[in-house]
Amino acid sequence: VDEANQLSFKHIGAACVPESLKRHGEHKLAGLVTLQIVSCRDLAMPMSKQLLMGGGGAGAGGGRSGRMVGLVVSDGHVKIHAVEHVATAALRSNWPPGVKVTFQDATVRNGVILIDPKSFVRAEGGVKQLD
Questions:
Q1: Which of 64, 73, 79, 121 is the most buried (most CB within 10 A)?
Q2: Is the dihedral of CA 70, 44, 130, 101 positive or negative?
Q3: Residues with Cβ < 8 Å from 1, sequence gap 6 or more?
Q4: What share of the chain is helix, strand, coil (3-state, %, to 5)?
Q5: What pairs with residue 42 in β-bridges?
Q6: How far apart are CA 128 and CA 3, in angstroms?
Q7: Helix (H, G, I), strand (E, B) or coil at 20
Q8: Is 63 a residue whose pLDDT tops 50?
Q9: Within the chain, what is the greatest distance between any pair of CA atoms?
Q10: H or E stretch covering 69
Q11: Which of 110, 45, 114, 28 is nearest to 73 (CA)?
Q12: Burial of 58 by CB count in 10 Å (0-12 exposed, 13-18 middle, 19+ buried)?
């Protein structure tokens, strides 16, 4: 597991996100599912400010109220968006691509994973160089 946390899912991941989750309607991402971050940012902060502040901005540590973390995550085959739907203290807006995030029984609405404290389990690992 520790070794897998350091590798890109593009090379070792098995497809676990069905394309059907990207369709309209409400679905469940059932059970424990670990996905790899492709991109991560605070959607409530203008992109120009994020670039000036080095990516994460004031919300990088998770303490800024009014932030909304947006992720693009992948199982190595399918990319899907995830949004902080309810404030989740363990979530950060400055994680680099390659970090693995684990969700449990997450709701997916209109093709977006809704992140909340119950569905967000953990983040770990990373990839030295993504290709």
A1: 73
A2: negative
A3: none
A4: 15, 35, 45
A5: 69
A6: 12
A7: helix
A8: no
A9: 38
A10: strand 69-74
A11: 114
A12: middle
Q: Which two tokens stand for residue 122?
A: 């953990």
Tokens of 74: 């992948």
| H runs (alpha helix) in 1-131 | 2-5, 9-12, 47-52
Note the residue count of the chain.
131
Contacts of 120 (CB under 8 A, 6+ apart): 88, 90, 91, 101, 102, 103, 106
Q: Which residue has the tokens 């950060």?
A: 92
State percent of the chain over pLDDT 90: 49
Q: Which of 111, 113, 112, 119 is nearest to 90 (CA)?
A: 119
**Residue of 37, 14, 28, 24 whose CA lies nearest to 100:** 37
State pLDDT tens for residues 12-28: 556 777 777 778 889 99
Distance in angstroms (rounded) separating the CA atoms of residues 112 and 72: 9
Question: Which amino acid, residue 66?
Answer: G
